[in-house]
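Minutes, project check-in
Item: structure for the 222-residue chain
Input as provided by the requester:
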Amino acid sequence: MKENKVLLLKLIVPFAVFLLSAYVIMYFTYKKIYTNDFIKNRLIEMDNTELVLSIEMEKIYDVIYTLRGYFQANDNDFTNIRKTLENIIKSNKNIYDILYGNEIPYNAGGLFVNGINPYPDTYDQTSRVWYKGAISKDGIFITEPYIDANTGNICITLSIAVYTNNSLKGVIGIDFLEMNNVLEKVITSNQVNLICRIKIKTTYSMKNIMYMKNLYLKMLKI
């Protein structure tokens, strides 16, 4: 009986070792193939997403240049400006808010209007990045991606200065929220798992910010 058991073990043990070795080889082989395919597909997806984002950005450019012409040609009061901004926001789903402020700080009696919930009267638009950036360059200024305090979503603000007779009249800002749709398409749970497996230890929101910053750098070249 003992001889039968020994013989059986001699047959089973090598076979079990063979199966285990085959499993380990197949695991690492297919893991590498899967990872490479996964990365390739995500890169293609990212390229497509960047194309979609570029198209949406062009729409925002059209809006901001139209608004610049509007403010250059008109001296409307607070109510008329707010109504105009509200109508634009309603017809553009990717615009969260539109801001306009003249060269005098709002908290010092200057004009500041936005299209959604009014800002507190302590607000100083002239001290903000979107305002300073616009008057520091020709054309459109784009902020780095940031988490919006009101929505908790990732946002960028595009802004442009308005001049009449070579004098600063004000600055227009547009809060653009399409960034979150990009994240939903690109930053998937599978990607987070892959990132964890290769041991990049950052929070999910930080990964989002890092990805959006790369897109932001590309948008500056549009």
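Outcome recorded: The mean pLDDT is 75.
No further action items on this chain.
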